[in-house]
# Entry
Amino acid sequence: MKAEFDPELDLVVERIIRAPRAKVWKAWSDPGQFAQWWVPAPAVCRVVRLELRPGGAMVTELSEDGTTFAPQLDASFLVVEELDRLVFTNAVDSRWRPADPEPLLMTAEVRLADHPEGTDYRVVVRHASRSARALHEEMGFADGWGTVAKQLAALVEGVQS
# Structure
């Protein structure tokens, strides 16, 4: 199933990444690469579990000082279509337990498509309500998800940020 974009409930980040989809996919699927771009620098990410398969876990920790880590995301993959599409949610945690994550519940869909310059990268983050969408936007969705998309691009394009 592919959900339509609903501007009242969803937020989106789009970017052309000047690298082939296979490199972008590897940056999503390789825990070592994923940790390099997943959180906005100078924060540091530690990947606890990254299992790219339907039902697989996506568990990360974040450190502001590079030494003390705290839980950042505990989610499950719903859809994994190699080189094309990922869908994950924090509504179900990595143990397949219903979750009530703070500060908000979301489902994110990552789409990769060929583009003449590399990869058309699109992330849609879906929320259950307008208030959740507004909260996510107020928390800095565009800056946060935009920054990590930029960091992902820099990694796979071989450009240092």
Summary: The mean pLDDT is 95.
